[in-house]
Amino acid sequence: MEQTGDVLISIMADKSRSEMEIDAAFQTFCAKYELRLNRLMEVQCAKLGYSADIAFKAVECAFARVRRYPTFDKMKTKTKNIDNAIIVWLNRIAYTQVLKFKNGKECAEVNADEDLAVINDATGFYEVISQKKYISDEEKEKKILLLNAKLAGMEEKHRIVLLTYLAYESQGKKLPRALTLKLRTQLNLEQSSIRVYKKEALEALNINS
Q1: b/e for 126-149, b at 16 or more Cβ within 10 A?
Q2: Which CATH architecture has domain 5-102?
Q3: Are 40 and 91 contacting, i.e. CB atoms less than 8 angstroms apart?
Q4: pLDDT digits (tens, 9 = 90+) for 107-155
Q5: CA end-to-end span of the chain
Q6: Are 58 and 111 in contact (CB under 8 A)?
Q7: Distances (CA, A) of 185 to 14, 36, 157, 179
Q8: How confident is the model at residue 110, as a pLDDT?
Q9: Domain segments of the chain: what residues?
Q10: Which of 124, 145, 167, 187 has its CA 20 to 30 A from that of 86?
Q11: CA-wise closest residue to 9 among 58, 55, 57, 75
């Protein structure tokens, strides 16, 4: 059974969870709401004379903020439908980001020029993670064995998509366009197919169940 948005937020806020669990919950949360939120922001940006690109950036900034501050409280919402309540909450955050652009400010953006590589296996994944925080060689070997066990049986394309997103979306940002292009080229997939592969891979790890 698919987890609700408020449950995914609670996972992100749970400091006892592993980094991989939190990042996977965040990615699932984004996939669940980004299309609907982006449509709302495109309408609001159009009214302000802004392009769809600004709407995209505002949504990206909103999700980055949610990743840092997963503070949604369903007890304070007046909407019974939890998805609608979360969209209202996200919309407020994203609209604030739009106003920042209006005032000449910017929120955190992905650096599309980063020289990032597609992640093919558990070893490559922990090479990236160890650049963000120190992991001893012994601990890294244990983590690689554990991740390999979790990924056993997963098809190659699903594994590569999953590991690449887990490695680089951990700071609440979307993948740089240059990296998504590398991913699409290597796997010979359209972006829409990559989203499907990502969703299926997350479900295979029981993130949605």
Answers
A1: bbbbeeeeebeeeebeebbeebee
A2: Orthogonal Bundle (1.10)
A3: yes
A4: 644 343 345 778 989 988 887 787 667 777 788 889 999 999 999 889 9
A5: 5
A6: no
A7: 36, 27, 12, 10
A8: 36
A9: 5-102, 122-204
A10: 167
A11: 75
